Structure formats: C-alpha cells, structure tokens
TrEMBL record:
This is Enoyl-[acyl-carrier-protein] reductase [NADH]. Its EC number is 1.3.1.9. It catalyses: a 2,3-saturated acyl-[ACP] + NAD(+) = a (2E)-enoyl-[ACP] + NADH + H(+). One of its GO terms (biological process) is fatty acid biosynthetic process. CDD domains: ENR_SDR. It comes from Nibribacter ruber.
C-alpha cells in the first residue's frame, strides 16, 4: 500500500545494481510513494547490472557517475536538476566496495593501495556527494541525505576487514556534514546500519551465510530485509522525519541491543561436546 509520502519530491539514487540491491528496492518504493528521481551508478557497475530495467519500470533517467569523481558528481547534480525540474529533496548513497575483500586478502596482510580505494569508494565518496550538492546549492531545505552502513563500523566482524574502517568513516562523515548541512540548509544527513542482507555485494563477504544466520538468531525480529530497509529509507526521505539528523540508525531487528539470545544458546548447547 502506498501513502504518497514522497509526492512531488525529487531525488538521486546511487547504487542500484540488480533486483537484490537495497537501492533497487528503495527506487521501487520511492516511485510508488510519488517521487521522481535520477538513477546513478559507476559505468562499470552499470555494465554489470540491470539498471535500465529499473529505469523503465520507474520512469527514471540514468546519469552515470563515478562517485569518487567531483567532476562526474557535478555533472550528475547539474543534469538531475535539469531532468527533474528543480532542486533535490533526497539522496541515497548505497555505495561500497573493497578490493581486499574481493581478492580475499586477510586483515593482517592488506594491500594498502586497495585499502585507500575502499575508503575512497565507500566513505569519501559520501563527502564528495555532499560537497558537490552544497557547492551547487542543489538541495532543497529539509532535504534528506542517507547512506547505508553496517554494525561492523562499531564491532569486530573479522571477514569484513577494511570495510569496517570504511563504514566507521562513513558514519563520521554523516555526523560532521550533517552538522554543516543542517546549519546551512536544514538538510539532514543520516546513516542506516542495516542487518546483513543477501545483496550481490553482501554475499561476496567471506563467511556471509554464517553471520547472516547468526544475526537472524540473535535478533528478536529476525534480520531486516532489503524491502524493509527500503521502506525505512523512504520514511527518512519524507517530511515525517524533518528533525532526524546526524544519526546512525540501527535497522537490524534488535540485533545491536542483544547480548545473546535463546536461539543462539540452543545451537551452542546442541553442538557442545557431550561429557
């Protein structure tokens, strides 16, 4: 059921790769709630994905952009305002990539050039997005800028390696730029710390199935799905959350507040050595 939460609002959605992507789900829900938006992704990711299908289904245009390039982002925000007919009300940053994870490099043996690439793509790009939006005065007052994070920014998940540092930086940037953008334009900036989600990127992390099942057993509500995350994103784009900013918002079925759960205890007891 749609509620017209985003009627008349204009946005930019980064990172929709395929139907498993959270950004893809956000685009679908935002469209159903009355928004118009431009879709964007890096040229390489666009060749790998199915973004044209999403654009057709939502009546959207695609503007390719490397989110690490200020020049590309300037072109994107300029074109988006022309295409949509005005300033931007919401932005979704759903961008993350670690060459070290892709190449199975252990945390104690990271390639530091790749580490810097992880930081640039997954965190600094968020700062660049907001830097360009500010310089172009592209955001409407009380606009909403949102990035997707993960609890590994605060806690150790060994196979998440350098992406943990990237997410920690992402959340720090949201606080610092949230203060700046709030004072300048009353634009709010937040991150969502989402449950492990079976996206194309997520399942590329080593041991994903194990910590997906663990988080599901730990969470009173179970893991939050990509669809649920999309619904949450849309509420943060809407006028009902105009005073929420500089927050890392946990969307994880309660996982982040748990110490241990009955379900996990049962599994441990069932697998304990018998005396």
């Amino acid at each position: 059921m749609a509620y017209n939460l985003l009627k008349g609002k204009r946005g930019i959605i980064f990172g929709a790769l395929d139907e498993k992507s959270i950004a893809w789900k956000v685009a679908q829900v935002a469209h159903a709630e009355g928004a118009t938006f431009v879709l964007s992704n890096a040229p390489l990711a666009m060749r790998m994905g199915e973004i044209n299908k999403l654009a057709e289904a939502t009546g959207s245009q695609i503007v390719p952009a490397d989110a690490t390039s200020v020049e590309d982002l300037t072109n994107l925000f300029t074109q988006a305002q022309e295409i949509l007919g005005g300033k931007i009300d919401f932005v979704l940053h759903s961008i993350g990539m670690s060459p070290n994870i892709r190449k199975n490099k252990p945390y104690g043996d990271l390639n530091y050039d790749w580490f810097m690439k992880s930081i640039d793509v997954s965190a600094l790009s968020f700062h660049k997005v907001m830097h360009v939006a500010e310089k172009l005065d592209a955001m409407n007052e009380y606009g909403s800028i949102l990035a997707l994070s993960y609890i590994a920014a605060q806690r150790v998940f060994p196979d998440y390696t350098d992406m943990a540092q990237a997410k920690a930086m992402l959340e720090s940037i949201a606080r610092s730029y949230g203060h700046r953008f709030g004072k300048l334009k009353k634009v709010r900036v937040n991150t969502i710390s989402q449950s492990p989600t079976k996206t194309t990127a997520g399942t590329g992390v080593g041991g994903f199935d194990a910590f997906f099942d663990y988080a599901d057993k730990m969470s009173p509500l179970g893991n939050a799905s990509a669809e649920d995350c999309a619904n949450y994103c849309v509420t943060l784009f809407s006028d009902f959350t105009r005073q929420v900013t500089m927050q890392n918002l946990m969307h994880d079925g309660g996982f982040s507040s748990m110490g241990i759960s009955e379900d996990v205890v049962e599994v441990l007891e069932a697998n304990a050595p018998k005396n």
